[in-house]
Amino acid sequence: MTARLPWLIFATGSALGVSAAVVVTAVGWTGPAELLIGVGLALVGLGAAAIGALGAVVASRLPRNAVGWILLALGVGIDLAFAVDAYAELSLVEGLGPLPGDEWAAWVGSWTSIPLIFGLTAFLFMLFPTGRLPSRRWRWAGWFVAVAVTLATVAVALAPDEINPAFDNPVAPTGQGAELARWLLDATDLLAPPVLVTAAAALVVRLRRSRGVERQQLKWFTYAAVIVGVGLGAASAMPAGPVADAAFVVGLLALAGLPVAAGLAVLRYRLYDIDVVINKTLVYGALTVTLGTAYLGSVLLLQLVLRPVTQGSGLAVAVSTLAVAGLFRPVRSRIQAGVDRRFFRHRYDAARTLEAFGVRLRHELDLQALAADLRNVVHDTMQPTNVSLWLRTDDRNDSRTTGQ
């Protein structure tokens, strides 16, 4: 029953979410714009269903690990909240509404994002990947996050302002109660930064203490979290424009990929590929910034130089494009070497060790010296527990081990 329960929860919640997207699109469609909105809503529902499915897989295989249940609650909760919002929106369709309980549906949809997105994400940071806090000392942090999320949810649920132009808050207090609700709402805004810092600190502490498989799992999750922070942070810091929009999209995609990275890491799927992913991200990220800066700089410089000769900027753009294309390979090689030397020292040292061994191999004739050298190379590049070399002599029935 324990293995089937996650799938039962997932199937119920996802069916409601996807059905709500279909109904909203069918009823509210009056043209291509509404159809596009409906398709977007359907993609949100399907994305949440994918997160819920991954959570169901983890929860069914590792029922004692809280990470799977958090992912399941996140995916199913988003779908259920979406279904409630869709019901409230349907009541506004001319000729269809009002519907029974539409005001209460809008009220539920107004505060569910706080425990779902804010609360579950914070606990995902704190409990990943073992499903437990980093240590007993972190219990106070867990209680702090739980209390903060509860207070924020209550504050939004009791907000005296209208939910949206169509609905008022059915439980909004009046008089002194309204003033108290506004004060609570303002106070809970101050709790968001400490909660985020606490969740991030738990992840950092666990990453510094981790070894082996757990460290690889944390690398996957931390990688996705860093991309979220860089994307959304860059988008908020940049002036409005295409670059800021692109950074925001990258941040949102990484945010959607955060629970996916968590689920795959707990399942240990392609766990050790994360080093390659991080390496390529650093290399091509730095390469994009370098070549982009070089391209813009060369275009501006050539335009200034060639302005007396030519009236247009086509020549400057063409020359700059050819120059950047020619710089691609050497710049990538230099950046790759720098990244390996700074962040992947073992890979850099291994490459240099193999290169030096290849040079010695062309000039060394003594078999015993070559055998000892080969054992040293294997030890330095792969760092095994022990090394032994088996050699075959001229006599096919005779063999010997040169050393360990």
Automatic annotation (TrEMBL):
<keyword id="KW-0812">Transmembrane</keyword>
<feature type="transmembrane region" description="Helical">
    <location>
        <begin position="220"/>
        <end position="240"/>
    </location>
</feature>
<feature type="transmembrane region" description="Helical">
    <location>
        <begin position="35"/>
        <end position="59"/>
    </location>
</feature>
<feature type="transmembrane region" description="Helical">
    <location>
        <begin position="66"/>
        <end position="84"/>
    </location>
</feature>
<feature type="transmembrane region" description="Helical">
    <location>
        <begin position="7"/>
        <end position="29"/>
    </location>
</feature>
<feature type="transmembrane region" description="Helical">
    <location>
        <begin position="140"/>
        <end position="159"/>
    </location>
</feature>
<protein>
    <submittedName>
        <fullName>Uncharacterized protein</fullName>
    </submittedName>
</protein>
<feature type="transmembrane region" description="Helical">
    <location>
        <begin position="246"/>
        <end position="269"/>
    </location>
</feature>
<feature type="transmembrane region" description="Helical">
    <location>
        <begin position="281"/>
        <end position="306"/>
    </location>
</feature>
<keyword id="KW-0472">Membrane</keyword>
<keyword id="KW-1133">Transmembrane helix</keyword>
<feature type="transmembrane region" description="Helical">
    <location>
        <begin position="190"/>
        <end position="208"/>
    </location>
</feature>
<feature type="transmembrane region" description="Helical">
    <location>
        <begin position="312"/>
        <end position="331"/>
    </location>
</feature>
<feature type="transmembrane region" description="Helical">
    <location>
        <begin position="104"/>
        <end position="128"/>
    </location>
</feature>
